[in-house]
Specification:
19 helices, 5% strand, mainly alpha, two-stranded antiparallel ribbon, 2 domains, single chain, 534 residues
């Protein structure tokens, strides 16, 4: 049987490095798009203030970009160090998107990021803007290919198990590429990154306004951030709904855990706003429910059921028993590849082989499992209900909160032409929330997938390397110490750049603060109002 301690420690280590890496990814994604917008304004208006604004946010983008690259490389190495059997089992499929990401996206981004920083005096305005666009394109393509790989782990389409090689192999790469789970995750994730960057720009700009510094930059940046943020937050909410629908189709245990839904309800199912999930009693105490909503989210209908956890466990038990038959047939094929009866039996049960492998948590040979062990394996398919339930609600709550914050900022800038101090304080204090929402989103996605490393195919505890617990603990301590130092350095660099503000002196205040003032195309010329509006 596998060493369960090594498996748990390896999971903790990967969670540590992944969540740390994702502190930088959303900001990189979003800031790259904001740079496209601000430099686009510079190209169209030829006003130096937009060049100064672009350079300022590009400085913060660059600091964040370097840390994101460094921590991302570490994550990929872990597939070989801590998850060797996983890499062997699915490397033919999982490795392809990562290789394409490196060749197509990372090199595109890394090549053009140098031109973006050092090409201002060597390229024309439109050419430099195109360079910035390629940096943004590379950032988003990196996210695409990584999420295609992760989406396949959530919904392993376009592949099948080969009993001769004992590995998963690609049967249709286009299905892998256009996996609905991957596509839903991509658009949802990048939209969350856009929200994070918009909140970041909004918070720093609000901080400048509270101190009366760089007012012109701050007002223009708030205009960009609030408009971009409204669109992005709206996209996150709409695309999150699509992710819920996809999960309802392919990951029923995850959806049931998100809703703490123990029993199957008559259609249409109710959405539980809040409650206290109790796994031991198989009940959600003090549940506040909204009728019909879950049925619409999960099935796009009012007449289809959403399965509860208890019914899903009963169905999973049947699949585990069927998986034992698949395992038996596979062993017979390995002993005699010409055994036609074994090949026929395996063909009939191969879809449930992964469920049979769940028993290897309790017994070396699944065929020797007892009824109690089969029941325990079926119960293992229920993820951490409380964590997924509340993680989802915190994520959604922050999304709606920031939609309101961005909408209020857009309203105040355009209609009131004044930003109240209470709003500026809220914008600064709420800045960490999008990062928390992003981390909660990954917790829901990955914890909700357990006990699978490849959903329905390979249990997590079977994917680990043959290493000792001490080895994993040592490297985890090393990563924690190194990442702690890097985080301190990154924060000091970011704070220093923010305190200094845009290079070359402060941007003086604008007159009104509305959208026409922000883009600088309709305000009458006033020779000395703003030295960067020439």
């Amino acid at each position: 049987m596998p060493d369960l301690l090594v498996a748990d420690l390896s999971r903790w280590q990967f969670a540590l490095t992944a969540m740390y890496h994702f502190l930088f990814v959303p900001l990189t994604l979003g800031l790259s798009m904001i740079l496209v917008i601000t430099e686009g304004a510079y190209v169209m208006t030829r006003k130096e203030v937009w060049k100064k604004i672009t350079k300022f946010w590009a400085t913060l983008f660059g600091i964040n970009f370097v840390l994101g690259v460094a921590t991302g490389i570490t994550m990929e190495f872990q597939f070989g160090t801590n998850w060797a059997y996983y890499s062997h089992y699915v490397g033919d499929i999982f490795g392809a998107p990562l290789a394409i990401e490196g060749l197509m996206a990372f090199f595109l981004e890394a090549t053009f990021v140098g031109l973006m920083f050092f090409g201002w005096d060597k390229l024309s305005r439109p050419a430099h803007w195109m360079v910035t666009c390629f940096v943004a394109l590379g950032s988003n393509l990196s996210a695409l290919w990584i999420l295609i790989a992760n989406g396949w782990m959530q919904n392993p389409v376009g592949s099948e198990f080969n009993p001769e090689t004992m590995r998963m192999e690609v049967t249709n790469f286009m299905e892998v590429l256009f996996n609905p789970v991957a596509q839903a995750k991509f658009v949802h994730t990048v939209s969350a990154g856009y929200v994070t960057a918009a909140a970041f720009v909004l918070a720093i700009s609000a901080w400048y306004l509270l101190r009366g510094r760089h007012v012109g930059l701050a007002k223009r940046s708030i205009m960009v951030a609030s408009a971009f943020g409204v669109l992005s937050a709206s996209s996150v909410i709409v695309l999150g709904d699509e992710s819920g629908y996809v999960a309802g189709e392919s990951q029923k245990f995850k959806l049931a855990a998100i809703e703490a839904m123990w029993e199957t309800e008559e259609a249409p199912a109710s959405f539980t706003v809040v409650g206290i999930p109790d796994r031991e009693d198989r009940e959600t105490h003090f549940a506040l429910e909204v009728p019909y909503v879950l049925g619409l989210i999960a099935t796009r209908s009012l007449d289809e059921e959403v399965s509860g956890i208890n019914d899903l466990i009963a169905e999973a038990r049947k699949r585990i028993v069927n998986g034992v038959a698949a395992y038996d047939a596979l062993q017979r094929i390995r002993a005699n590849p010409e055994d036609a009866a074994a090949q026929e039996a395996f063909a009939a049960t191969r879809e449930d082989l992964g469920h049979g492998l769940l028993l290897m948590r309790y017994v070396d040979d699944p065929r020797q499992a007892t009824e109690d062990q089969i029941n325990a394996a079926a119960d293992d398919l229920v993820p951490n209900v409380a964590l997924t339930f509340w993680g989802f609600r915190f994520m959604v709550g922050i999304g709606f909160l920031y939609l309101a914050i961005f909408a209020a900022g857009f309203y105040f800038m355009n209609l009131k032409r004044n930003l109240p101090r209470w709003y500026l304080h809220i914008a600064v204090l709420a800045a960490p929330l999008p990062w928390l929402a992003a981390e909660f989103g990954w917790l829901v996605a990955e914890v909700g997938r357990q006990p699978w490393i490849i959903d329905g195919v390979l249990p997590t505890h079977l994917g680990v390397s043959s290493v000792s617990a001490g080895h994993v603990i040592t490297t985890m301590v090393g990563f924690t110490a190194l990442y702690g130092v890097l985080l301190i350095i990154e924060m000091r660099l970011m704070l220093r750049a923010i305190r200094l503000g845009p290079s070359g002196g402060p941007v003086v205040p604008l007159g009104g603060g509305g959208i026409s003032d922000a883009i600088g195309i309709s305000r009458p010329a006033t020779p000395h109002a703003d030295p960067y509006d020439k």
